[in-house]
Amino acid sequence: MLLPRPIAQGVADGSVDLAFRRWADSRVKVGSTFVTAAGVIEITSVRSVDPEKITDRDAKRAGFPNADKARARLRGPDEYPTFRIGLRWHGEDPRIALRADAELSDEDIADLTKRLDRLDSRSSHGPWTRQVLALIGRRPAVVSTELAAELGRERPDFKLDVRKLKALGLTRSLDVGYELSPRGRAFLDADGR
What we know:
Helix content: 40-55%
CATH architecture of the largest domain: Orthogonal Bundle
CATH superfamily of the largest domain: Winged helix-like DNA-binding domain superfamily/Winged helix DNA-binding domain
């Protein structure tokens, strides 16, 4: 489930504990968690509601000034049900601590090598993981459009691949572009390719 950064931060600070979504079927389950810019958020409840019965109080709990604004933000066909989703901040993004960990054991290196090799083997455009890591290491804080073009790749596909590296704690996003995390730099040094 995607949440805009201000809403995710509202969940983290306790000022937001609801979301409303219009979907053909519920896409979330009670007890599931997802990672946002503000950390990990847990789903505490999911139920179908009549959008006309969204109250101003509930809208404020979802980060909107009133119910009309909350209803105006619902996407999808009107015939889809509207879900009222309870949210709770679950904890810090585990990738933050992972990114900072530059003390890689032999097991860590072997695990990362295996994971990157698996990403490479499943790619429709051939091995890419070390190439992208090296490029980001060489050109930190460069807009993704330029990085993708340098590799002859489409920007959306390139960004998706970088997110896979970020999930492993090897890169981090900047306001513009990316940089290697301490873990990413340590892996590249150890990998030696």
